[in-house]
Write a structure and sequence with these properties.
single chain; 210 residues; mainly alpha; 73% helix
């Protein structure tokens, strides 16, 4: 399959899954349907929107393709309807989210390079695309963002984007570098979940004054 087409397919799957996880997060905070749709949309498009605003790439993808807003809205409403089955679908969502994380990371890096940025900025934009939607979701839902917890999430995006960029720098074709990065990012995330791999956390307790 053409790597560009593969990314488009996985991107659409990714924003659908992100919208559904956003809807669940809103439901945990007992939001109304407007809140559900807002959180779902921010989760799905937040990373790409932040990236494009930072690098000045217009129009934003959901402005250029408003049908994607319809897709994520329908996905969020479906999640509301099937929320009672969410626990049974948890492993499926985790797997699709891992694939979406790798996909968004690659897309973000490519978008930055398309407008002339080098490896450093491309890596940052890849990570922002991968994790910023979830950060905004968790902020709206008054939670510590997943990307800032000890669980390996942002770390997966960081390692995956540099794997992709190094291969690109070395002249590896997209037909190889994209599938390799997707498989690596997906496997890394799923293994981290299975074996509870974490990064060290910083704990500071302020001294109590009498």
């Amino acid at each position: 399959m053409d790597p560009a087409l593969l990314l488009i397919i996985l991107f659409n799957i990714g924003i659908t899954v992100e919208a559904m996880t956003g809807a669940l997060a809103a439901g945990e905070r007992r939001m109304d349907l407007i809140g559900v749709l807002v959180v779902a949309t921010v989760t799905a498009f937040g990373g790409g929107t932040v990236r494009d605003l930072l690098i000045g790439r217009y129009p934003l993808i959901w402005v250029a393709n408003p049908e994607l807003l319809l897709l994520t809205s329908i996905a969020a409403l479906i999640m509301v309807a099937i929320a009672r089955f969410a626990r049974q679908l948890e492993k499926t969502f985790l797997a699709l989210d891992a694939l979406g994380l790798a996909t968004f990371t690659i897309v973000g890096a490519q978008r930055a390079m398309d407008v002339g940025h080098g490896l450093a900025i491309a890596s940052i934009m890849g990570v922002i695309t991968g994790v910023a939607g979830g950060i905004l979701r968790d902020m709206l839902c008054n939670r510590i963002p997943l990307a800032f917890r000890s669980e390996l999430y942002a770390t997966v995006s960081i390692v995956a984007v540099w794997l992709f960029l190094i291969m690109d720098y070395l002249g590896v074709s997209d037909a190889l570098s994209i599938p390799i990065t997707l498989v690596f990012g997906f496997a890394f995330r799923m293994l981290a979940l299975k074996f509870h791999w974490v990064v060290p956390t910083f704990v500071y307790q302020a001294r109590q004054h009498d």
